[in-house]
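Support request from a user on the community tier.

User writes: "When I paste my structure tokens into the form, the page sometimes reloads and wipes my input. The last time it worked, I copied everything first. Here is what I submitted, just in case something in the input itself triggers the reload:"
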């Protein structure tokens, strides 16, 4: 097993390799292509953020960011497979915004803030229009599992995604693994090398699959993608 610093350095090199594809990228002229590009850029930024946490004293919180990478990637998969998924995203966004806005408007400590209530009411009216339109077209809230399942990723939901969810919540097993020592509590302990490598391997896999989707919504060629992915595999294989 390589030293943790070597493992992280290899992951950083892979990130730099993938970023070279973005230097001259042009996004196709459609709404779904632009949303796809935003999802890919979010995956790329989350990868950078995850590596920053891996370089920090709080490594055990990096998997939370890989979970978000997974969520962005499954949206990208759905959108590339079916452009109408953009409307599903619009519906889910309106549904969530309405719930949030309604919650704030009902909060007791907001009742004296007339300006804020007016602004929230305007937001609600806008989102309600979108919600009503798409509800009328048959859209309904889509569970996270269903997002994975509809693009053949149900197995990932029940394994790696759920594993990363345990780092996001106050999961008892994660709390014990993160902080419980023999006769003492631990603070900012590094991840075991095996866990660190496993987390990075999954993050690289998600990022790499995102890279492979670039030709679907940008001018990046399949040949350039293959070179980048092959380079990444060559970097990671000896680790």
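"...and here is what came back when it finally went through:"
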């Amino acid at each position: 097993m390589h030293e943790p610093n070597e493992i992280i350095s290899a992951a950083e090199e892979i990130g730099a390799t993938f970023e070279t594809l973005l230097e001259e990228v042009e996004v196709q002229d459609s709404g779904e292509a632009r949303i796809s590009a935003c999802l890919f850029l979010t995956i790329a930024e989350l990868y950078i953020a995850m590596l920053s946490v891996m370089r920090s004293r709080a490594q055990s919180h990096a998997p939370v960011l890989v979970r978000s990478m997974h969520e962005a990637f499954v949206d990208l998969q759905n959108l590339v497979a079916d452009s109408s998924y953009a409307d599903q995203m619009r519906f889910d966004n309106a549904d969530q915004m309405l719930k949030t806005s309604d919650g704030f408007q009902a909060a007791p400590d907001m009742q004296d803030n007339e300006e804020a209530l007016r602004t929230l009411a305007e937001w609600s009216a806008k989102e309600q229009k979108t919600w009503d339109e798409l509800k009328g077209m048959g859209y309904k809230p889509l569970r996270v599992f269903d997002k994975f399942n509809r693009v053949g990723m149900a197995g990932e939901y029940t394994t790696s995604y759920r594993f990363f969810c345990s780092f996001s919540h106050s999961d008892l097993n994660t709390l014990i693994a993160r902080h419980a020592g023999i006769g003492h509590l631990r603070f900012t302990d590094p991840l075991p090398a095996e866990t660190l490598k496993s987390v990075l391997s999954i993050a690289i896999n998600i990022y790499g699959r995102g890279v492979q989707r670039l030709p679907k919504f940008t001018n990046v060629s399949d040949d350039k993608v293959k070179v980048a992915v092959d380079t990444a595999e060559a970097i990671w294989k000896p680790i």
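Agent notes: The reload is a front-end session timeout and is unrelated to the input. Residues 188 and 223 are 43 Å apart (CA to CA). DSSP finds ten helices and no strands in the chain. Escalated to web team.
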